[in-house]
Amino acid sequence: MANLLTQDEIEKNIVNSNGWTVNGREIQKEFTFKDFAEALRFVNRVGELAEGMEHHPDIFLFSYKKVRLTLTTHSAGGLTRLDFDLAERISRI
Question: Mean pLDDT across the stretch 49-73?
Fold first, then answer.
C-alpha cells in the first residue's frame, strides 16, 4: 500500500501541480473544452492513462464540455505520491 503524504509534502507537491487544488484528502482540477466530443476524448485518454497506472480518478463530465477530476488513494485514506504522479501525467495530455 502507498504511504500517505505529510501536509508539508502535499503543500510542496501542490505548488508544482499545474492548477490542481487540495480539497481535504483529495486533489481536484477542472478542465473546459470546446465541445462534448473533445471533453469525451479527454476522459477516454485519462481513463487509459489511469488504467495503465492502476490508479483511478473520479471523473465528472458536466455542462457538456467540462470535466472535473478528483484524485485520492482510497486504499491509503488520502493523498499519496500516486495521486501527484497521475495528476502530472494528466496535465500533459
Answer: 97
Domain range for 44 is 7-91
Answer yes or no: are the C-beta atoms of 93 and 42 closer than 8 Å: yes
Question: Does some domain include residue 1?
Answer: no
Percent of the chain with pLDDT over 70: 99
We report the CATH number of the domain holding residue 75 as 3.30.1360.20
- Which contacts (CB < 8 Å, 24+ apart) does range 38-47 have? 38/65, 39/64, 39/65, 39/66, 39/67, 42/67, 42/93, 43/67, 45/93, 46/90, 46/93
Residue 86 pLDDT > 90: yes
